[in-house]
Specification:
The complex is a heterodimer of chains A (622) and B (607).
Chain A (H helix, E strand, L loop, with lengths): L24 H12 L3 H33 L7 H46 L3 H6 L2 H22 L2 H19 L1 H48 L1 H6 L3 H47 L1 H7 L11 H43 L18 E8 L9 E8 L4 E6 L5 H8 L7 E6 L2 E2 L5 H7 E4 L10 H6 L7 H10 L3 H7 L14 H14 L4 E5 L7 H17 L1 E5 L3 H6 L2 E6 L2 E6 L1 H7 L2 H8 L23
Parallel strand pairs in A: 3-8, 3-9, 6-7, 7-8
Antiparallel strand pairs in A: 1-2, 1-4, 4-5, 9-10
Helix pairs in contact in A: 1-11, 2-3, 2-6, 2-11, 3-5, 5-11, 6-7, 6-11, 7-9, 7-11, 9-11, 15-17, 17-18, 20-21
Chain B lengths: L12 H10 L3 H34 L4 H46 L2 H6 L2 H43 L1 H48 L1 H6 L3 H29 L1 H23 L5 H43 L23 E10 L7 E10 L4 E6 L5 H8 L10 E4 L5 E3 L5 H6 L1 E4 L10 H6 L6 H10 L3 H6 L17 H14 L4 E5 L7 H11 L10 E5 L11 E6 L2 E6 L1 H6 L3 H14 L11
Parallel strand pairs in B: 3-8, 3-9, 6-7, 7-8
Antiparallel strand pairs in B: 1-2, 1-4, 4-5, 9-10
Helix pairs in contact in B: 2-3, 2-5, 2-10, 3-5, 5-6, 5-10, 6-8, 6-9, 6-10, 9-10, 14-16
Classes of the chains: A alpha/beta (622), B alpha/beta (607).
Chain lengths: 622, 607
């Protein structure tokens, strides 16, 4: 049950990603901001608390130094309790502020994401079929999942914490200057090589990381595929070859991880040793010498035990954010790229225009007069003046070669596509002025591409429509013989992805049952010619007969038996109705239809174009 | 390594992993341990040397030596810590590689019976997700164990040496926060897993909706799908908030604990120093030691969780590695020579009754008697579930038939019990094309040859025989076209013919086609049947079994066997079978009517 075979007339999915927002950053932000606004207070709170967190964190080493130098070393007891209490307050306060700050960010971020994801999903559901024909599913998936997640990461972790990091770095530098300008100078002089080294390693590590991920994906994909095809592997004595092929991938992965390991370990360790080098350098120069060199007026022996302890602490606080900065910047860059694409999707307004005429119950009188249509403004006409009338209760079969426009006609009728010229009326009302939901409730199409959802069977039949009760469902299932397998599986049975646990024939019966349960006034059938065993085939034929007997039907027919069962046959060629009449009339006329029939089997596309695809043949055992 | 002594199985899986797989890397661990010890020793020593340097500076003594020493120690720390991590983590990668290789080998050997009992998704998840815990346990886990032990002994020991009383005070908040956080780590890991599975479900749902968009639009079911999406979106939100709480409130408790320890150091140690119970230098050393102890303590929580998680994951891995292979090997003690090698053998089936091992109560074949002449073409016909495929599976020995039920007959009349043949020898003589053509996401040539590299001339010959050559011209890279996952690039019929070409490539003595002609048109079908039977009547003619429910594919067979509900209900040549009432004649009428009508079967033809 795959996507329908590409038709020459319909535009193919493009590789070009045209879902990018144009215009300035401000406009892009303006598209997305409404989803964040209700929780704007959380971001404000975070920004307000940030300096407090930085300050409280920075106070700790300073208090430690005061205790050591002003009390312990000189042996002064009074005031020591106060310093300890202050320290306690700083520690607890920092904890509370930090927690408040991160929770606020998470709250704002995840709520924004939830809102945005939901809005995107609604938005996408409202877009027209022409949009989906052009966009590969994978790309839309990325918008709705990966891109939204990337934005979420930035909101909760990246964007705002980088402010805290900036404040912390500035604060540390100030505190260090206050503590000991000489040491600070040495730090500033020695820091660039370290940061350069870290960044260099990080760049290599990040590139390797991408390779590692790809290698792992290759390993897992290869394995999963051989597990799926293990029967073939064993029957063909392919085990050793497969093992050797797997080993190449496995080794490649190991080689890459071993290499990336070195870089990651180095990044981790570089900061560790750095403070020692700074302190060593300080001792080497001697505080006094250094002050003289830089013309600073500092007491000769500025270095104290307390200073050293506090200083090492500050260095850690300085380098951790510096070390992580490039990662955070990468997160933000990803988020900005995602944001541009998300805004692009939200700004897409490719919809079928809605009408305002209501339609309660359709009798099924369809009239097309001189209908012209093209899929894109710059494409040639696919329909070139179609005239066709279907009366209530009638079954009309449309036949014609690929590209003759028969599917296009039906795609206009359920308004998958808008923008026809000429006139199409349903029960006398012009199609384009009908309310879209009313129209679609009354016109149901069953296409070759059998669409089954990974939900329970009940939902697959009623699609959550509250007007369909259990009795309607059961009746529709009986009528279409879907009850044969539904009774065995149960209505609550949750189908596997894409209905992998149904055969092609069963999937077809299920979509018939779905259609009948919705009781539309007009049914459009794109008859599939999937390869199914003769038993199921008989059921499908009988189900078709039941539908024909009860509904107005337009059927795109492939099988002669279906064509013969129709009240009228309409042959399309070159975007027009070439001839119509009953089977016998048309045969007697000796025109296109007679030629098609005489051409017989296997001359044109053959059944393989129609329906059989992965995961759905009848089989005795899984 | 996998078939170690059975008592190994009783061991804690991590210990078993270490014994079975970790051993070759013991030297790497030893070097890593040395490097780590050196790192930790240096971290503790540096403050002392700094202290000496400060004293020297104050006294106006030369400080060059101390300065160089401190800076040098810093550089050594960088190098040695990097080395320790590399030496500890690499064995983790190596073990991951080894386990993955063994699992793959095992999976390729496990039989259909195993795959019938286990869900593929579960097997794949074990082989790709659970295996990462082997790496964590042997890499990070090993490092953490050693780091914590040495950290506790060195830093903790030093602290106790300085002042047991102060140590006792200072350690309390650390341990307390550790206990609390340990609880939260468990919660975090569970929540994370839940979150991942929930976001996976959300993705699946989005994907399903996108793929079914025409239906959603067509039946105006947008609101129902939005409702379902919202429910899932809500759950994802709730879980990610829970994660956020854990991360921002629970985990910083560790840092709070560290801060509280320092507070206690000030509050308790300060007065102690004033009273002269500890020296100023000791107090400074204590502050540093506390910092070096904090690291290992913090990773202790993680380590405990990793042990717990990897235990469960490794149990699942070892379950795979310990699964009995149960290959349908030769059942009789003495190997029988394979009758008539190089040309098609016959079969003599007597009283064959069979039920699959996982469903012993459901008999699939009842008392089947059958004689298949060497080199003949046999058609197997029956409805879905009649036992056709099972018969093929038994002759291919994907399962062993019961003893005595199937004899292989040579052209010279020599017979051998099927189950007495060496499995690999037997399989080498077969070309079985299963019902569902399975293609790997590799080139068409590789899929047909299944060798590395395939013989391209032979591949060309068989693609021609399988009526695939014309299709190749429409594909971007011809034989080198990569067919995508499960051959998604190809149509159903092209997939079937590729699988058929794979079977022909083998030039086998027994060819079994399990309904592989169902998705080709009648003209191609006729051509293929002709190709398949082209050696008929010659010396080298293979024995050919064609399973089909399309009678046109088997009507010219030497023998047609009609199966129904596991029994042979009829057999004979086509002409004989349509002369008497029965399933075959009924089906023939239905199918030939469609063909005989003037339009014949317009299948797709009018499309």
């Amino acid at each position: 049950m795959s996507t329908p075979p590409p038709r020459a007339a319909r535009p193919a999915p493009t590789d070009r990603d045209d879902l990018r927002a144009e215009g300035s950053d401000a406009r892009i932000l303006a598209t997305v901001w409404p989803y964040a606004r209700p929780d704007g207070w959380t971001f404000v709170l975070a920004v307000v608390v940030t300096p407090l967190v930085a300050l409280l964190n920075l106070a700790q080493p300073w208090l430690l130094k005061r205790m050591l130098d002003e009390h312990v070393v000189v042996g002064r007891a009074d005031g020591l309790t106060q310093v300890a209490l202050l320290y306690l307050a700083a520690v607890v306060g920092a904890y509370l502020c930090q927690a408040a700050y991160t929770v606020a960010l998470a709250l704002g971020g995840t709520r924004t994401i939830r809102r945005l994801r939901s809005a995107l999903f609604r938005h996408v559901l409202g877009l027209s079929q022409s949009f989906f024909d052009r966009q590969p599913t994978g790309r839309l998936m990325t918008r709705l999942t990966g891109d939204v997640d990337a934005l979420g990461d930035a909101l909760t972790a990246g964007a705002v914490t980088i402010v805290l990091d900036g404040l912390t770095i500035a604060g540390v530098l100030v505190a260090m200057l206050l503590l000991d300008p000489g040491m600070t100078l040495i730090t500033i002089l020695l820091a660039p090589p370290l940061l350069l080294a870290i960044n260099l390693f990080r760049r290599v590590a990040r590139k390797l990381f991408v390779e590692v991920r790809e290698a792992l994906a290759a390993v897992n994909a290869f394995m999963a595929e051989r597990i799926d095809g293990v029967e073939v592997v064993q029957l063909y004595g392919h085990e050793a070859v497969a093992a050797a092929q797997f080993d190449r991938r496995n080794q490649h992965f190991r080689g890459l991880t071993t290499r990336s390991n070195v870089y990651e370990s180095a990044i981790f360790s570089l900061v560790d040793g750095f403070s020692s080098i700074v302190v060593g350098a300080l001792l080497w120069f001697g505080a006094g010498e250094l002050s003289a060199t830089f013309g600073l007026d500092i007491a000769t022996v500025a270095v104290s035990v307390g200073t050293v302890v506090a200083f090492i602490d500050y260095l850690d606080r300085l380098f951790v954010p510096l070390r992580d900065a490039s990662n955070k910047i990468a997160v933000i860059q990803r988020a900005v790229a995602a944001l541009v694409k998300i805004a692009g999707l939200l700004n897409t307004t490719e919809r079928v225009p809605d009408g305002d005429q209501r339609l309660e119950a359709l009798r099924g009188h369809v009239v097309l007069r001189d209908v012209h249509f093209r899929y894109r403004p710059d494409a040639p006409d696919v329909l070139r003046g179609v005239d066709l009338e279907v009366r209530p209760g009638e079954v009309v079969a449309i036949v014609g070669a690929t590209g003759s426009g028969k599917t296009t006609v039906t795609r206009l009728l359920d308004r998958s596509y808008a923008g026809y010229r000429g006139s199409i009326t349903l029960d006398g009302v012009e199609l384009s002025s009908l309310a879209l939901s009313d129209l679609r409730r009354n016109v149901a199409a069953v296409r070759q591409d059998i669409q089954v959802f990974s939900e329970d069977i009940g939902f697959n039949v009623d699609l959550g429509n509250e007007r369909i009760d259990a009795e309607d469902r059961a009746q529709a299932a009986r009528l279409t013989h879907a009850n044969r397998f539904i009774d065995a599986l149960g209505w609550d049975h949750v189908l596997r992805e894409r209905g992998a646990d149904l055969s092609v024939g069963e999937g077809q019966l299920l979509t018939f049952a779905r259609t009948m349960a919705h009781d539309p006034g007009l049914i459009i059938l794109d008859e599939a010619t999937a390869s199914i065993d003769s038993l199921t085939e008989a059921l499908v034929q009988d189900a078709l007969a039941n539908i024909f007997a009860r509904k107005t039907v337009i059927v795109i027919a492939h099988r002669l038996s279906t064509v013969q069962a129709a009240d009228r046959i309409c042959v399309m060629a070159d975007g027009r109705v070439a001839e119509q009449g009953t089977h016998d009339e048309l045969l007697a006329a000796g025109g296109r239809y007679a030629a098609l029939v005489a051409a017989g089997e296997g001359v044109l596309a053959g059944p393989e174009a129609a329906g059989l695809s992965s995961g759905g043949t009848d089989s005795e055992r899984p | 390594m996998t078939d170690g002594p059975p008592d190994r199985r009783a061991l804690h899986p991590i210990l078993r992993l270490a014994l079975d797989y970790g051993r070759p890397y013991r030297w790497s661990y030893a070097l890593g341990a040395l490097a780590l010890l050196l790192t930790n020793w240096l971290t503790v020593r540096i403050p002392v040397v700094v202290g000496q340097g400060v004293d020297a500076l104050r006294d106006g003594a030369p400080v060059g030596r101390s300065a160089l020493l401190v800076a040098g120690m810093g550089i050594v720390v960088m190098v040695v810590r990097t080395a320790s991590r590399v030496w500890f983590f690499n064995p983790g990668r190596d073990v991951e590689y080894d386990v993955r290789r063994d699992i793959f080998d095992k999976l390729m050997r496990l039989q259909p019976e195993f795959y019938a009992r286990h869900k593929r998704g579960d097997i794949i998840s074990r082989a790709s997700n659970d295996i990462t815990w082997a790496r964590l346990a042997m890499g990070f886990g090993a490092l953490a164990v050693f780091n914590i032990t040495s950290g506790l002994v060195l830093s903790g020991g030093q602290m106790v040496l300085i002042s047991p009383r102060l140590t006792a005070f200072v350690v309390v908040p650390l341990v307390l926060s550790l206990v609390i956080v340990r609880f939260f780590i468990q919660m975090l890991l569970e929540t994370q897993r839940e979150y991942q599975s929930e976001t996976g479900l959300l993705s699946d749902q989005v994907l399903g909706s996108l793929q079914g968009m025409a239906t959603i639009h067509g039946f105006v079911a947008e609101e129902a799908f939005i409702d379902r999406f919202e429910a899932r979106n809500e759950r994802v939100y709730a879980l990610s908030m829970k994660l956020a709480w854990l991360r921002s409130v629970a985990f910083p408790l560790l840092i709070l604990g560290g801060g509280l320890s320092l507070t206690l150091l000030l509050a308790v140690g300060g007065p102690m120093a004033l009273r002269g119970e500890v020296s100023v230098g000791d107090l400074a050393a204590f502050a540093t030691l506390l910092a070096t102890l904090g690291g290992p303590l913090r990773s202790l929580g993680w380590m405990l969780s990793i042990i717990q998680q990897s235990r469960a994951a490794l149990e699942r891995i070892f379950e795979l590695l310990d699964a009995p292979v149960a290959r349908p090997e030769r059942a009789l003690p003495a190997p029988a020579p394979s009758p008539s090698p190089g040309c098609g053998p016959g079969f003599q089936v007597r009283g064959l009754t069979f039920a699959y091992p996982d469903e012993p109560d459901r008999t699939v074949l009842h008392d089947v008697d059958l004689d298949i002449a060497p080199g003949s073409v046999v058609g197997l016909f029956g409805r879905t579930g009649s036992g056709k495929s099972t018969l093929v599976r038994l002759l291919a020995r994907q399962f062993n038939p019961p003893e005595g039920a199937v004899q292989v007959v040579g052209r010279d009349g020599a017979t051998a019990e099927l189950t007495a043949l060496e499995l690999d020898d037997w399989r080498a003589r077969l070309a079985v094309v299963p019902q569902r053509p399975f293609l790997f996401s590799d080139s068409i040539a590789a899929n047909i040859g299944l060798e590395d590299p395939p013989d391209l001339d032979r591949v060309r010959t068989v693609t021609d025989r399988a009526a695939l050559t014309a299709d190749l011209e429409s594909l971007p890279d011809g034989l080198e076209t990569v067919v995508g996952e499960r051959g998604i690039m190809l149509s159903g019929g092209q997939r079937q013919r590729t699988a058929l070409a794979r079977g022909l490539y083998r030039e086998a003595d027994v060819v079994m086609l399990d309904d592989v002609l169902s998705a080709v048109d009648h003209e191609t079908e006729a051509r293929l049947v002709e190709t398949l039977t082209r050696l008929r009547g010659t010396e080298r003619a293979p024995t050919t079994l064609i399973v089909s429910h399309r009678l046109s594919a088997i009507r010219h067979a030497d023998l047609i066997v009609v199966l129904d509900e596991g029994r042979v209900v009829d057999q004979g040549r086509h002409d004989a079978l349509i002369a008497r009432p029965g399933l075959y004649r009924d089906t023939w009428r239905v199918q030939s009517e469609r063909k005989a009508a003037p339009a014949a079967d317009v299948q797709g033809g009018v499309a």
